[in-house]
Hints:
Blueprint: H1 2-10, H2 20-32, H3 40-64, H4 66-71, H5 87-106, H6 110-129, H7 136-156, H8 161-182, H9 186-191, H10 197-201, H11 203-228, H12 232-251, H13 260-284
Helix pairs in contact: 2-3, 2-7, 2-8, 2-13, 3-5, 3-6, 5-6, 6-7, 7-8, 8-11, 8-13, 11-12, 12-13
Amino acid sequence: MRKLAHYLSLVKFSHTLFAMPFALTGFFVATHHYGYPFDLKLLLLVIFCMITARNAAMSFNRYIDREWDKKNQRTTRREIPAGIISPKNALVFAISNAVLFVFITFFINRLCFYLSPIALLIILGYSYTKRFTPYSHFILGIGLGIAPVGAFLAVAGQFHLLPVILSFAVWAWVSGFDIVYALQDEEFDRNNKLFSIPAMVGTQKALWLARLMHVISATLIAIFTIGVGINWQLTFSAIIFVALLIYQHIKIKSDDLSNINFVFFTINGFASLMYAIFAIWGLCIK
């Protein structure tokens, strides 16, 4: 159990709250808005896909960044630099989860199976982007943003507009909060020739860009809500999500970054979870 706990910590399993609720929302958009049949087995396969894909992405990221994590005082206690998990074992864990992810998609439908290598290319390729572009935040946003449309495709086997809008909302949301999170490493990135928005433009401009991304996200959430049909649950899901976006920018200021971890982990996780609870509730009673 202790070893399992180390691997769960390696991949920050609790952070599954960021994308999983939106994936489940995409699933229920397919079944309760577009009228595709509900299948519990399919829902479980989607959940397993989300878990294995995220395990692969996070463990691979930790493996690729292990030398930087040793140098960065903020990350020296992570499992690989701390010697709790070896680089080899982390890589094996990443590969195993990636293979399992593709294997599971085979039992979903042909489209998901064919698209699974592209999804892996995005979520694994993100780990390299900080070495050559400051726009890695947007690649991470794509990695999490494909969750709603991926879950929708598992049910429908074809694309529709509304889940794509929701995916773009998640992309803008994740990109924005990752820019904020990267403020912690602004000086480290500059000193070690790593790329990020904060390292490129500084704290204040980076915060304004993060706010812009969250305005885009809030707008798309509103469009999605109108598209699926308004009731009080869906309306409340959008209101609480937007309110928490605003709240996190009140808590983070260019001269006071002490609340970054609270905003990144707690507020964004709570925003995603509360949004999904009320959105799925609203979809199910329509």
